[in-house]
Amino acid sequence: MTTLASGTDTLTRDALTVLQPGFTGTTAPDWLLRRLGEGLASVGLFGRNIASPEQLAALTAQLRAERDDVLVAIDEEGGDVTRLEVHTGSSFPGNHALGAVDDVELTREVALELGRRLAACGVNFNWAPSADVNSNAANPVIGVRSFGADQDLVARHTAAYVTGLQTAGVAACTKHFPGHGDTAVDSHLDLPRIDATAEVLHSRELAPFRAAIAVGTRAVMSAHILVPALDPARPATLSHRVLTELLRGELGYDGLIVTDGMEMQAISATYGIEHGSVLALAAGADAICVGGGLSDDETVRRLRDALVAAVRSGELPEERLAEAAERVRVLARWTRTAEPAHPDLAPTDIGLVAARRALRVTRVDSFTALVTAPFVASLTPVANIAVGDETPWGVAAELTRLLPGTETGGFAGEDAGHAAIVAAGDRRIVAVVRDEHRHPWMGRALDVLLKARPDTIVVEMGVPQAPPRGALHIATHGAARVCGVAAAEVIAPR
């Protein structure tokens, strides 16, 4: 049964209700349990909170023992962005692989199975899917997290993904409104700007969100991006024009609006998280996501007090805060009453099936399958913050299983190609890249490798924009563990 500490006034409870904080550790700290008793209604989980499915189930049970209707949220996109399998790599390919297959029923099945696994661990709210149209090939933060660069493709797969997740009883959170695909800046680091016209935005960026709303997405996440055609003054998360006039008014959306992480530099560096949170609520957001970086009780207290003070000063209307808190409670009630489809079914290998179907193989020269252990040269770019550097990627682990004795090394920078050749010795080279088209040094490293060793196999695990080359070129459309498995099966078939 939900418990609320006596003496906690309605205003303070509402201020706590709209927060979605994170924490450190694999068990709930005392301060978090206390805040749940005082009115906190949501908790966000990240890779640092997860050691195993069994541990995660125990953690969510611990949270529900304090508040039985708590929203337990996670950033689990599958593919490159995984928290459920942060230490091993995901059992599901990401959006770009699903878009490459372009089978909406497959996308729905993948999302359904992912949702089942989340629900089995007690997670009922997923900050996914990404509905961004990756129209800018130089995008440093979306890339393979997007279904693709065509708005119609992205729209139909967004709708299928939302349907699959919610059929499993897990609320979907379609992101990043009004669309983060046409950016060349990562909003974790700075404020991106999209200079497309209103006509382009409505036909391109908004199409997937319309599709998600049409199938009943329970939540939408705002983007920390400046879109002058919609609002020349404030980023979308803080914009009444974007959240209330466009999303609520024009698109007719009435579900929960969640902000992206408020500690991201696009907001915190300019507005600060306290003032930014007040502005976001005033603009029309209902829930404040924080905790990817700031994850302590002091952060919760600061945000709670900032919202209460803003109401008392008149900066934030009390009815706006109350409305936001009620939308959080409405979503919590939905998660308690949603009946997941076939919760007793055993897990399937639909993720590997999808990864195999997403693979694109180009034989540039004559190719001989590997029968002896190779050297895997990973040309490793800096991972963006959304993906993180905790999750392994590549093909080395699976090739080692298929061909014991496989060796590997990571290389970066202008000497990467020469260094890889030296490290490989006489072994056949498998060069693994991620977004070659965005990293000139990576392209030059492949030039060196292929000139010296034309039998090199190239595996592209990012967006395959660069021309295929190598004795064999494999595009996996993502770096999930199952994408590596599918690639290794081609390189070293049994």
Describe the structure.
With 494 residues, the chain is α/β, with parallel strands linked by helices. The chain is 40% helix and 11% strand. It is built from 18 helices and 14 strands. The strands form 3 sheets. The chain has a 6-stranded parallel β-sheet, with helices on both faces. The protein has a 6-stranded mixed β-sheet with strand order 9-14-13-12-10-11, with helices on one face. α1 (10-17) packs across α12 and α16 packs parallel to α17. The protein is globular. The protein starts with 9 loop residues before the first helix and ends with a helix. Mean pLDDT is 93; it is low at 1-7.
The proportion of residues forming helix, as a percent range, comes to: 40-55%
Adjacency order of strands in the biggest sheet: 2-3-4-5-6-7
- What is the first-to-last residue Cα distance? 55 Å
User: What share of residues are in beta strands?
Assistant: 5-15%
Uncertain residue ranges:
1-7
Number of helices: 18
